[in-house]
Queue: 2 jobs
Job 1
Amino acid sequence: MKVPSAKKRVVLLGATGSIGENTLRVLAAHRDRLELVGIAAHSKWEKLAAIARQFDVRHVGVFDNQAYAAARADAAAFPAGTHLVGGLAGLVELAQLPEADTVLVAVVGTTGLDPALAALAAGKDLALASKEILVLAGKFVMAAARKHGAKLLPVDSEHNAVFQCLEGHPQAGVRRIVLTASGGAFRDWPADRLAHVTPADALKHPNWSMGPKITVDSATLANKGLELIEAQCLFGLRPEQCTAVIHPQSIVHCLVEFNDGAMLAQLCPPSMTFPIQHALLHPERAPGVDSALDFTKLLGLEFRPVDEDRFPLLRLAKQTMVAGGVAPAVYNAANEVAVAAFLAGQIPFLAISRVVEQTLANVKNFEPTDLAAVLVTDDHARRVARTFLK
Ligand SMILES: NC(=O)c1ccc[n+]([C@@H]2O[C@H](COP(=O)([O-])OP(=O)(O)OC[C@H]3O[C@@H](n4cnc5c(N)ncnc54)[C@H](OP(=O)(O)O)[C@@H]3O)[C@@H](O)[C@H]2O)c1
């Protein structure tokens, strides 16, 4: 039984990552409105202990077995009375903490799926940063949100922006949405140079400071592909209604075009504190953590079409949206395998899209009727993708 509280009580899964750190900045700035009650990460337990001490958090989850054992052996590093949990079961337990109102899932990849579903089943608001979850199992996550009457608030900046532009507008009036893409590290590189890029090159994002996987996805534009799939699922759109445009400044985060041709845009500086705060405080608006746009300074806004020949992962993502079924899940699985291999120096940059294309061609598509079938396909697609790394 949840005891009503004046503050929103938040569980943060992925507290040590890039989204996690930005969320902590928002929480620190709004201690009067928000209270952190649970945190989790993969293995950085010492960083979790520091966060627990700073925010007086009493529920801490460590996914990795060894790190969990190390954390338990040094319990004095955590505030007195801390409840330490381990593994996926620990994350699920945190997502259902009776005292929590909102669960923010910012775990890289699809590990956050079970905790996200657990949070929805427990009637928590779900603030979702982990786009891979919706690409893998969007149909089932959205059905769970509807079934339990839970609020699903997008944290991904573009989707949070679309959410803001759509509020109060009937869905029937929407012609299309346009997600903006910075273009990533290789936006202006000619095709022939892309053959020789290194992981260090791909990790230099022009506008955003993010974790390594999403930064590589930005460089291949797979990130925008994943986001188009995420948008289709979150907002119930047809594939052709989900489009993307290059916008190098990352100030306009989306445009929503209505049937009459009018467009609404959402603008703010490229900092994740804006969408995170919106999702955590929704529907309340409070002063932001970072400065707003300053129109006393020159501000250029530029838009260009996406070059799908140089960045085929965007085209492939659109094809999976049209194909439906498990195709988006296969795309995501193959991309995760290929990006990990690229970051480990096992395959060149251009092989990432090749691995995804070959995996899509070799895994049979079908309409899944249950989540188990999607998870089996996800596993199968990862094994197929690994055969194409050689
Ligand atoms: N960064 C952004 O600006 C941004 C924007 C939009 C959406 N997103 C999405 O947000 C998610 C997180 O991105 P990020 O950039 O914050 O990634 P990141 O910096 O790499 O951080 C990942 C976080 O997830 C934790 N983690 C990884 N595997 C885990 C597991 N099995 N169990 C529990 N925790 C685990 C990590 O813990 P350790 O530190 O212990 O490894 C870390 O806290 C991704 O899905 C990404 O697509 C990110």
Note: The pocket of NAP is lined by residues 14-20, 40-44, 63, 91, 106-108, 111, 129-132, 156, 208, 210-211, 214, 272 (CB under 6 Å).
Job 2
Amino acid sequence: MDVFTRRKRSAVMTAVRSTGNRSTEVVLAKALRRHGVKGWRRHLQISLGPGNTRPDFVFLKPRVAVFVDGCFWHCCPVHGTKPASRTDFWLSKLEKNRRRDRRVSAALRRQGWTVVRVWEHSVKRDVDGCVSQIRKSVSP
Ligand SMILES: [Zn+2]
């Protein structure tokens, strides 16, 4: 049984999404600076024809878009746990996220962008590894 009411659960999940991801992004931003990786901006809006997207980090010149994907919201194979209550509701929400991720990545690639997606858990475990992965995409 879920310890939260529906409304409360919704609020909790929203909080997980915003603060969880934000702190991971900050960790990555600091690591990029520490390693002297320059030329990125946060949350720049990119038009996708229909719709648009705001990658967490954008390198405009080499056209590299970096997304930090939260383990829960983006269904990480390691930590993408299924919520115990309102399972169907959450699964369809998560499936929608997954489809949107794929659609956004494909649309960006069609426009000549290199898309890098790093997992929240990779940032937490091995932020230097994430930085070198990004660096390779930015200056191959
Ligand atoms: Zn994970």
Note: Residues 71, 76, 78-79, 119-121 surround zinc ion (CB under 6 Å).
